[in-house]
Amino acid sequence: MKGFKLNPEFVIKDEQSLRGLFDATHALAIQKCQDRLGRHAQDFISRSPFLCIGTQDLNGKADVSPRGDPAGFVKILDERTLVIPDRPGNNRLDTLVNILANPTVGLLFIIPGFDDALRVNGRATLVKDPELLASMSVNDRAPKLAIVVQVSEVFMHCAKAFRRSHLWSPDHFQDRTTMPSLVKIILDETTGAPSDGDEMRKIDEDLEEAYRRTLY
Question: pLDDT digits over 88-102, tens only?
Answer without folding.
Answer: 999 999 999 999 999
